[in-house]
Amino acid sequence: MKNRLFIILLTIIITFLSGGFERLLAQNYWSEYPISIVTQNNGSQQRLELSTYDSTLQTTVTAYTQWITGYYFFSTANGKLTFITYLNPGQQTSRYGFGIYDFVLHQFNIKELDIPIITNRTLNVAANQYWVVSAYEDEYSSNSFFLTPTYHKYSMVTHQWSSVNMGYSESTYTPQIWNLGAPNNIQWIYYIEDTDEGEFYHYNPLAGRFAFFYSGCAGWYYEIDEEHFAVDGSCSDNYSYVSLDPELNWQGTPLFQTTGELRNGIFTANNQWLPHFPQYIFTYDIGIHQMIYDSTTNLTAGPYVVKDRVASYSVSSNGTSPMIYFLVHDPLQHAWVKDSAVTTGLVIPTIINGTVHWTDANGPHIRGYDVTTGWGNYTTPLFMYFHLSDFSNTEGVPLVHVRNYSIGKEQFYFDMGDGVVSTVRNNLWHLYDQPGPYNICMYEASGVQSVCQNDTFNLCGLPGIISANVDSVCIGGQVDLNLSGFQGDIQWQFSTNSNNWQDITTTGFDSSAISLNPVSSSYYRAKVIDGTCNPIYSAYKFVFVSTSTAGTIASATTAACIGQEIVLHVANYNGTLRWEKNSGVGWTVIPNATGGFLTDVLSVNTEYRVLSSPVLANCPADTSQIIQVNALPLGIISPLTGVNICGQDTVLLSANGTGVFQWYSSNVNGAPIINTGSTYSPFVSSTTTYYVSSLAGAVETAGLADTSVGVTSTGPITGRGLRVVSSEPGYLESITLYPMSAGNITVSWSLDNLNLGSVLYNISTPGISVEIPLGFKLNANQNYDLKFSSSSINFVKTAGGFSYPIVNPLSSLIILGRIINGYFYTDSSFYTGYNIVFRKDVSHSGSLLQYNTLLKL
């Protein structure tokens, strides 16, 4: 779906609960078992009896809702039960729910919930073959109603309901609660608010949960093509492009600072800055689990034309003559296959059934692609191909995913071999309810041509259900797990992320009951094997382990001047922190020091430590190592001539200590260095304060030396920057930029999203390199972000010709990657900040920061 907004006339909220605007074609994952409902009464109480005939068990399975005082108002749709409850006619209760028959576990799963009933609030639940939607509507006046929906999906893989609250209330002038409808789209729910902000939720049936995408500028552009998604990230700036890999989840692209399009699983994009080059074309190839790219840097290139998974573009000159180019993603070669032809002038390509057509002064021409012979002067024969992912061996459920990669047409449908035939679409998940061989076929929309693949599922047994005596324990505490209702041999497994599973080898690993002493929060499941059948897996059980790890205090500061502010940082901690210090009279709590950073002013030699308390109150706390910071006396700036002078005069100042001395007229970060050396002889015309710092260690340089590497361009750099780390403590003394105009720039530095300071620098001479003094202090082995901000200046930037991390063998400072709007990337599409000067090892033997006032009489 596309949406471009250029003129905004009013504020609206749009909820997409049905199709019609986008190519999001509906198809369910499986065929639900039909449910029969009977009400049972016991005096003033009522409950519902659910039943269905299970063809695998060859018996009728029943289940019941809870008894309530009052009565149920219920309905069924596509194998789903939905209900609300009443105490008496016109008086709703807070209880509502929904249910489905899980044909893998051979049992009903009924979800019963409560929403508080307040004055003028109404509840309702509805369902279709894809979703269950529950909602409440509040009436604030006779023409003001606010509807708040929640959407629910059931997974036959995880055997759990997943829910997502859209996080908004839809305002209407008439009540909508009794017109409640579930979305006619199997995988996506989303909304655009105020024509800008957008929230997008995609349901993954394998994971049994939602992926969430957010953009503050979605109203400017977004496009959903089944399992491919493109969205405007910064309002005509910085688009994002992702595709679903059914085996790896969502996969993105490292392309940034581009705008683009999406058609039939193929993305096109171009540099958002003039002159909009390079241009890119890319698509995700499940066969090799990668985005496949091609691009052009020709400034005369026209836009890509994409249709039938074939692409073309033309150029007015390739240096010698006009050209037309042809591209196709060949799913057998897992690559873009490219060809070209000379034209007698700039032409406009069109694509019909995968064949590229164009006309020039020599008449009409065609170029087609054959997977056997390649590009040629013939029409493209229809090549039908789909990728099949089978999860029966890895996940223990007969679940498959198919994706169309055909060349020559765009409309296809699938016959899954068990009686389920999809609508026209390019992607489909499907869950089978019976073992056996299946012939899975894809048809061209007319049904004339098809291609098939065979798949066999040898699943039997019952996975069972896990119960646990507790779901939260202290580290090392005991958890007792029990598996019931299973059929076959057991192998217990655990995972820390619910994706990568390992066999448990301790006592009880193959029995229905096992006792464990976890040291970290983990997921547990049972792998069940019945004879020669493929393994099946129970739904997992998550156990939270409350740990209190105080972590490690990291600091380059082992000594500092009296009165100097120091910063300590604790890494790898969890729990609730509390900083303490000992200045010689015992440990005391530092007020308001509960975060990962501590800022304190040193007055005497002081010890520091941090304590971490766990989430569960009955679990033990942890204490970090102790760091001692020694307080050193201040150095002195000694005037070699008097500090009291008459009129204007030259004075001679001297600083004691060792190291390299740097003189400043201000003590803020980024103040310019006005002199180096142990003495300074300024001309003084007014009362002046001078500052001096003493540094030891060699001066080093890091990053790209200048703009001679790669391809340069100009543009804004606000929100962009670099991530750096040093193996030694020291100072970032300066950084060089190439401004194209005059104005102000702010360079800030942060650690773990904590802003540590900034420098505001005025650039008065554009067009040449400018060295900006920084004075940023870096601890060793910690990742710092340098960020740039300027509303009025464009700067020279570098792309390509290098790779992150940028390592200078003679420097302790490493450039790890680039920052854009707070996110970290390692592609080489952006670099600025040249010849970064770094000095190791602050020396405290001389003046770290001191001043003397010169008085003009």
Give a written overview of the molecule.
The N terminus and C terminus are likely disordered. The protein is built from one helix and 80 strands. β23 and β24 form a beta hairpin. The strands form 20 sheets. Strands 69, 71, 72, 74, 76, 77 and 78 form a seven-stranded antiparallel beta sheet that branches. Strands 41, 43, 44, 46, 47 and 48 form a six-stranded mixed beta sheet that branches. The protein is globular, with a radius of gyration of 34 Å. It has seven domains: 163 residues, no CATH class; 98 residues, no CATH class; 72 residues, Immunoglobulins (Immunoglobulin-like), CATH 2.60.40; 85 residues, Sandwich (Immunoglobulin-like), CATH 2.60.40; 81 residues, Immunoglobulin-like, CATH 2.60.40.10; 72 residues; 142 residues, Jelly Rolls, CATH 2.60.120.820. By secondary structure, it is mainly beta. Helix content is 0%, strand content 53%.
